[in-house]
Design goal:
The protein has 77 residues and is mostly beta strands. It has no helices and five strands. This is Zinc ribbon domain-containing protein.
């Protein structure tokens, strides 16, 4: 079961849920099914060990980040 992030078009609530292929997810706040699936945030290993950390440029210059405007452009890979 994949984990997906959604935003409810009815109430604006954001949430994550596990979704089976035959399931239709519903908003836990209002019960609505008018949802928009969100892009996942990419994580990379932290520099200090095995912990995961958000990529420093995940939201820079469009999907996938690491564009010329990214402050950590040289660290991305």
């Amino acid at each position: 079961m994949p984990l997906y992030a959604y935003s409810c078009d009815s109430c604006g609530h954001g949430f994550e849920t596990l979704v089976r292929s035959d399931d239709v997810p519903q908003c836990p706040a209002c019960g609505g099914a008018d949802l928009t699936r969100q892009l996942s945030v990419i994580a990379k290993p932290a520099s200090g060990g095995g912990a995961m950390a958000e990529a420093p440029c995940a939201s820079m210059d469009g999907p996938g980040g690491c564009g010329a405007g990214c402050p950590a452009f040289s660290d991305c890979g």
